[in-house]
Amino acid sequence: MNVRLWFFSSGFCVVLILRLAPLAESGVQSFIAGVAANEFWRKYVNDPMDARFTKNFGAELKVTMGDVVVTSVFPTSKTVMRPWHWFYTLWPAMAGPEGKPNIPAKMIRFLPTRKTLFVSVSPQLFNPAIKYQTRVLMNREKKAGHIGLVGVLIAYMMGQNQKLYFNPFFCSAKHYVEYLALGQVTGGRWWQPLYNRLSKRCPVRNLVTSEMLDGST
Q: Residue 195: helix, strand or coil by DSSP?
């Protein structure tokens, strides 16, 4: 190799490293801070098999109002493996009034079609005992700071023939479900492709709280 060319390329590499070093350090610090702040990440690290969460077929899984439920994207009747579909529970199965049929459980899901994967989604209200009768679901329960009935009401309105923006990276089902659970999207990390930073087009940017029902806000 020509000495001048070698010297130039070596010098260029040194300058490039010096320029990128602060960015790399900043990125590592951001990563560490994100891990510390991300509850779902900590759960996965401390309990990689999600042993403390209840798993069962859709027709048998016990849930309560506001529970977050997941199932495997790739169908399985044995367990729940990542990546996940994310659901939000509006209400569990309940006994109906005397002389009336029982009330089935109701959840909401955000599953776009192939044609609308990067365009929009029409949220669907469904009965897990029918839609996922032979699929294993996992009840990840409620996160701290849950907004309760407010999230249920928003979910119900979303399921009334609404068409919402969707992007599998920046406005995914997990973004929507976390918004219904907490009233805001607290996560979204650059190292999580299916749960990246929230898009400005995603309609879950306005904070909502459980106090909105008492008339004080």
A: helix
Which token pair is 143?
Answer: 């996160």
| pLDDT block averages, 10 residues each, the chain of length 217 | 40 37 40 42 56 91 96 85 94 91 96 96 97 94 91 97 95 96 86 85 94 67
Q: Is 90 helix (H, G, I), strand (E, B) or coil?
A: strand
Helix (H, G, I), strand (E, B) or coil at 83: coil
Confidence at residue 98, expressed as pLDDT on a 0 to 100 scale: 86
E strands, the chain, are 54-57, 68-72, 84-91, 106-109, 120-121, 124-126, 136-139, 164-165
Burial call 128-165: b when 16+ CB within 10 Å, e when fewer: beeebeebbbbbbbbeeebbeebbbbbbeebbeeeebb
- The pTM assigned to this predicted structure is 0.76
State the Cα–Cα distance between residues 71 and 146, nearest whole angstrom: 21
